[in-house]
Task: structure prediction
Amino acid sequence: RLLDPCPEMAKDMGLSSASLFTFRHYDQVSGRVLPHLRHLANFLVEGARAIHSVKGDDLVQVAKMAIKMTALEFMVNCWIRPRKALSAPCTVQELWEALKARGGDVATAFLYVALQQANRDSMATLRKQLRHRNPSLWAS
Result:
């Protein structure tokens, strides 16, 4: 619930409705949600099985990073999405690089991706404000 709080919970956390899903939001809740994200990620990774699509047999030679990548992608699809129009979503390449850079830690990669999405959403808001003032202005 900390990742996607209702307005009342956000107020208790000291966040205004304007700061929900921003860099500040994810930075503020990251310490509290990290143990829970690690538990969820471990549950997903340790409980995962790869099954042959035709035979139905278990595949035993699947790289652990592939399973971690699938768990990260699942978690991102559940909670991290663009919140502003014209804000690009996370790419598979970005997820892979975040996972590799964090030594395969799905939970910290998830938080990193959340912060990156919040930055893209902020940039989309800034671009919209600039275009509103002058259509020829652009921010990158």
